[in-house]
Amino acid sequence: MLIIGITGTLGAGKGTIVDYLINEKQFKHFSVRSFLIEEIERRGLEVNRDTMTLVGNDLRAKNSPSYNVDCLFERAVKSGGNCIIESIRTPGEIDSLKKKGKFILFAVDADPLIRYDRIVVRNSVTDKISYETFIQNEEREMNSDDPNKQNIFACIKRADYQFNNDGTVAELILQVEAVLKEIDDHGK
């Protein structure tokens, strides 16, 4: 069983990679976002990016820095087969998943203006924000010394493979295909 984790900046293309792995490579998908929405709804809170950050940080602080992905990993093991866990946000999550078996971390990034345009088009409940708020959210999530809070920058630096997604979907998919071939060839 191969588990690919995916990290990256807001609107960079994590979902595009996930869709490709699900539809073309038959990976099963486990989403931290969906996991957090389940908890937010259980708590009777409003679903938005701020609440997702607060609840995610709270769960990690009360349990462990890797709690959210550990729960998803357990679901992945039960499902059998190759899986993708989206979205890795703390170094503790990486450490925990690396200890559990065949785990590879992908990171994706793109120019901030391109990413903002993408989230405007995506139009999810957490994406209805101004460019200024988009940048503020990203700054809040990029760096933290607290192991229970998001540190996307550290996660991107620790990725096994990094993708630049300033171009087209087809160009991104070519990058992913090349990496999957390399993983296959090396039995990684």
Strand line-up in the sheet with most strands: 2-3-1-4-5
SSE sequence, one letter per element: EHEHHHEHEHHHEH
First CA to last CA: what distance? 11 Å
Summed over residues and divided by their number, the pLDDT gives a mean of 92
- C-alpha geometry: globular
Q: Return Rg in Å.
A: 16 Å
Shape-level CATH architecture: 3-Layer(aba) Sandwich
CATH T-level topology: Rossmann fold
Number of domains: 1
Q: Helix content range of the residues, please? A: 55-70%
Task: For this entry, give a set of tags.
alpha/beta, 5-stranded parallel beta sheet, 188 residues, 5 strands, Rossmann fold, globular, 9 helices
Can you tell me about this structure?
This protein is an alpha/beta fold and 188 residues long. It has helices spanning 14-25, 32-42, 49-62, 67-79, 91-99, 112-122, 131-142, 152-157, 169-186; strands spanning 3-8, 28-31, 83-86, 103-109, 161-164. The chain has one domain (3-174): P-loop containing nucleotide triphosphate hydrolases (Rossmann fold, 3-Layer(aba) Sandwich), CATH 3.40.50. A five-stranded parallel sheet has the order 2-3-1-4-5, sandwiched between helices. The longest helix is centred in the C-terminal third of the chain and has 18 residues, at 169-186. Helix content is 56%, strand content 13%. The chain contains nine helices and five strands, in the order βαβαααβαβαααβα. It is globular, with a radius of gyration of 16 Å.
